[in-house]
Each structure stands twice: as structure tokens, then as C-alpha cells.
Design a protein that fits this description.
By secondary structure, the chain is mainly alpha-helical. It contains eleven helices and three strands. The longest helix is centred in the first third of the chain and has 22 residues, at about 45-65.
Length: about 240
């Protein structure tokens, strides 16, 4: 299946931003394998800038959007937004694949669809917009493009043990207690069965190849049973 032809003007429409200096966009789309002058003419420097701009823009946005959130929750939300998978998802939504300037080897190896390249280009474009139009324009691009990810995180914003502890403390209950009920299997492949107890609630068991994994599974079981997590959200982890 052939890709559509490159159309920088259409890409700018999808970004919702028109470049004053189109060379910046071209650079943001240029992989080192297609840069005659090497790294200096590729997107790598713009990626460096864009990574920092994305982090600051997303942090400012989350601070305003969740006025009651703790520092810990804000940090978890930020980490979810700026991770590689999220950036690659945004770049795919921009449909940057056909616009990428790649060397022959990267083209043959499917570089237009590689998660790492897409994530890097997402950050490079954010950096390019910052240089071209200033931080506020770049921040606006971040808000437009990452809004769906903020509304519907692709993973739980905290691990099961942390979520269970926060839920219990929020209800005025003591910290959940964990105990190993059984350890089976050989030393090189053990299996743990752990019981977690929350005051006033039925306990739950968890199985796993390590004590920590079993504890996480036990905590997850209670969270789902009590309706704190849904099976759908839980599956993202």
C-alpha cells in the first residue's frame, strides 16, 4: 500500500499552526539518515528543545486544569502525557509519516511508522513551533494535540498498591496490610500468593512471580471489586 504524497501545507493545517519560517518545519521532519550535514541538520536539536517545551507546557496546563490535584497526581499525569508512546500517538494523529525525510535504509525498515521516530518528530515539531512563534504558540499546540490523552489516560495514573492506599486513607482507614500466604515453585521460578486486608472490607488474594507482583494483583482485585477501578482501565496497565 503506497503512502500519500507529502503535503507540508496540509500538515500545517492539521497542526493548526502556519510557520513563518518553513525551514524549521522541514528540519523538524528530517531524520539524521537524510540530513546531508548529519545531526546538525536533522531534527535532533529541535527534539531536545521540544522535549523541554512539552514538559513545561503540559505542566502549566495540568496545574491550571486540576486545581485540587496533589503534586504526586500532577507528576503522574505529566509523566503519562510526555512519555514516548503518547508523543508517537500524537504524531500519528498529525499523520506526519508521509512528510518525514528519511534515508533509504530507514525507508526500507519502515521508519515512517517507527514509534521512536514518530515520538522524536512530535517533540521536534513542538520545538520548531516554539522557535517560530514563541512559547505560547507551542503551548497551544500541546493543549490541542494532547487533550484526548489528558481526558482519557492510556494507563492507570498510579500503580495498584498506591491507588489502594490512597483510597483507604481517603476513607479514614488504616494503611492496607499485606502478608505472604504461600510461596511455591523452584527458586528460579517462584510463585507467591499474597493476601491484602483493608479494615472493614473483605480481603483479597493476588498471585505473581514476585512478592511485589502478587501484592499489586491483590490490590488491583480490591480496587476493581470496590468499583474504584474498572476492568477496562485496569487492563491498560
Amino acid at each position: 500500500m503506497s503512502l500519500r504524497k507529502a503535503d507540508p501545507a496540509a500538515l500545517q493545517e492539521r497542526l493548526g499552526y502556519r510557520f513563518r519560517n518553513p525551514v524549521l518545519l522541514t528540519t523538524a521532519l528530517t531524520h539524521v539518515s537524510a540530513a546531508p550535514g548529519g545531526e546538525a541538520e536533522s531534527y535532533q536539536r529541535l527534539e531536545f528543545l521540544g522535549d523541554r517545551v512539552l514538559g513545561l507546557a503540559a505542566a502549566r496546563w495540568l496545574y491550571a486544569k486540576f486545581p485540587e490535584a496533589t503534586e504526586g497526581e500532577l507528576s503522574r499525569r505529566l509523566a503519562e502525557l510526555v512519555r514516548r508512546e503518547s508523543c508517537a500517538e500524537v504524531a500519528a494523529a498529525w499523520d506526519v509519516g508521509p512528510e518525514l525525510r528519511l534515508g533509504p535504509s530507514e525507508i526500507r525498515s519502515g521508519g515512517r511508522r517507527k514509534e521512536t521516530i514518530l515520538a522524536d518528530v512530535c517533540e521536534a515539531i513542538i520545538g520548531a513551533v516554539c522557535l517560530d512563534g514563541g512559547f505560547d504558540e507551542a503551548a497551544a499546540l500541546v493543549e490541542r494535540s494532547f487533550a484526548d490523552l489528558m481526558a482519557t489516560p492510556r494507563r492507570p495514573l498510579r500503580d495498584a498498591k498506591t491507588a489502594l492506599q490512597e483510597w483507604a486513607l481517603g476513607m479514614g482507614l488504616p494503611t492496607p496490610g499485606y502478608s505472604i500466604v504461600e510461596r511455591t515453585g523452584p527458586d528460579h521460578r517462584p510463585s507467591f500468593r499474597v493476601l491484602v486486608k483493608v479494615s472493614g472490607h473483605e480481603g483479597a488474594f493476588g498471585l505473581g512471580p514476585s512478592k511485589r507482583a502478587a501484592e499489586q494483583e491483590a490490590a488491583r482485585t480490591i480496587l476493581v471489586r470496590e468499583g474504584v477501578w474498572t476492568e477496562e482501565i485496569d487492563a491498560r496497565g
